[in-house]
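quick one, two chains, predict together pls
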Amino acid sequence: MQIYLPIAEVSVNLFLLLGLGGLVGFLSGMFGVGGGFLITPLLLFIGVPPGVAVATGANQVVASSISGVLAQLRRKGVDFVMGSVLLIGGMIGSFIGVQIFAYMTALGQVDVFVQLSYVFFLGFIGVTMFWESARAIWRSQRQGAQQIRRAHQHSWMHSLPFKVKFRKSGLFISVLPPLALGACVGVLSAIMGVGGGFILVPAMIYLLGMPTKVVVGTSLFQIIFVTGFTTIMHAVNSQTVDMMLAFVLIVGGVIGAQIGSRMSTRLKPEQLRILLAMLVLAVSIKIALDLLLMPAELYSVTRLVLP
Amino acid sequence: MRALFFALALSVGPALAEESLVTGLSRDDVQITADFTGSDILVYGAVRRNSPAPQTPPLDVIVTLEGPSGPVTVRRKERIFGIWVNRAAVDLAEVPSYFAIASSGALDQILSPDDDLKHQISLERRMSVTKITGDAMDFADFLQATQRIGSAKGNYVTQHSGVKLAEDTLFRADFALPANLTEGDFTVRMFLLRGGRVIDTKEQTIDVRKTGIERQLSNMAHRQPLLYGILSLLLAAVAGWGASEMFRIWRR
C-alpha cells in the first residue's frame, strides 16, 4: 500500500516505512539510543530528499526521546541542572548547525557534508565503543583482575571558572565543558538529523565524569529539546518537516521500541554495546564507500524553487 | 461550442487551417490524496477539415504532457582528495517537473528541427542554460544527464508510437501519471504536423492538486511554518508519552 508524503512529494510503501520505523525503534529500545543516525540514511536510501530526511529524522527522535526520558524519570535518572546547561549549549549549537546546513545547501555540498559528518562521527564512536566493549568482555572472561576506578579525576576542567554544583551527578565543575559539549551535539543534530546520544553518552561518562545511572536520562532530556528546536528551525527555515512521514515512522518506532527493550534484558551490557558498535561501524563504512567509490550517476539535479 | 470552433478556425486563417485539431481530455483535474498511486490521462481528438485530406506529405500528431516547471541546478561530481564531491554546475531555467511526449512516429522523422525550436516541443528545447559554474563548458552533457535522471525516476517519458492515429483523422494518446507528482497546472499540448511542419496546435490544462490532509499539511507547512513545527513536536510528544504509558500498562 503506497502513501503519498505531502512535503517530500514522493509516494512510498506504507509498510516499508512502518518497518523502517520499527527497526529503528527496536534498536533504540534495545540500546537506548535515539536511532537518528540510522533513520536519516535509510530515508535517503528509499528516495526521500535529503532536507526532508534530516528534518523529519529530528522530529522522530523527539518522540523516541520523550518515551525514553519518561521511563528514566521514574528511575530518578535525570539530572535537570546538567541537562539544562547542556541544553543551553545545544540551542546555540543547533542554531549554528541550521545556518551551516542552509549554507551548504546553497553551495550544493550538503550531501557530501552530511555524509562526511556521518563517516567521521559514526566511525569514531563505533571504533571507540567497539574497543571499549571488546576490552570489557575480555576482562570479564579473565576473572579476578579488579578494576581500579576513582570517583573522579582532577583535570584541566576543574581549573575553569563558573563552577556549578550538579547534585544529581555528584559533580562540582565549570559550566563551560558541558556548554561546549551541548553546542557540539546541537550542531550535529541540525546537520545530521540525529539526537547525538551516541556522542553525548560517552562524552558525559568519560569527559565530564558523570555516573552512568544519570547519563542516559540526562542525555535524552537534552536531546528532546535540541531535536525539538532543530525541528522547528527546519520547519521555519526550509519547510522540510514531513508530518505524515514522521507520524508513520513514530508509530512503527513505538512498536519496535517495546520489542527491543524486551530483547535487551536477555543480553549482557557489553554484548549489547559491541553489537551497537558493529552496527554503527557498518553504517559508517557503507557511507564511506559511497563517497570513495565512483558513483553510478555523476550528475545530480536540484530543484531550486519548488513550483 | 460550435461558435468556438468557428472562431478558432477563423483566427488561424483559411490559408493555413485547412486542417485543424479538435481535442479533449478524459479529465481536467487530478487530486492527490494520501493513497494516490498515479493517474491515467487519455488525450483524444480529431482532425477537422474543410476539404478532402491531401495524400502527401504524411500526417502526424505529437502530444506532450508537462508538469509545473522551474529552475534547477545540475551538478557533476568529481574526485577530490579521494572522495566524490559536487564541482561543476549548470543552472537551467524552466525545467519541467514532469514531461511526457507521445507521437505517431519517431520524433526525428516527423518533426523538423526548425519547428521544434519554434514551438519548443521536445524536452531539450524546453530547457535553457542560464548560468555555468566551474568547468562545465560541455553543458550538453548536463542537459543529457537531466533527461537521463528524470527518465530513471519515471518523470520524463517518451512514447514513440504513443499516439494512435486512425484514418488520418482520429487520434488518442494515453498517459500514466506517476505517484510522485509536483502539484500545479499540467499543460497538455497537441501538435498536428504534415511533413515535419506544425500546421495546428492546441493547448489544455489539467489541474493537479493535493486534497484532504495532504493539502492541509502542505499548505500549513508553507504558510504557517512555525505553527506547523510546533504541531509536529506536539505530535511527537503525544506519541512518545503514549508509547511510554502503553509500555507501563503492558508491563504490569
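The longest strand of chain A covers residues 299-303.
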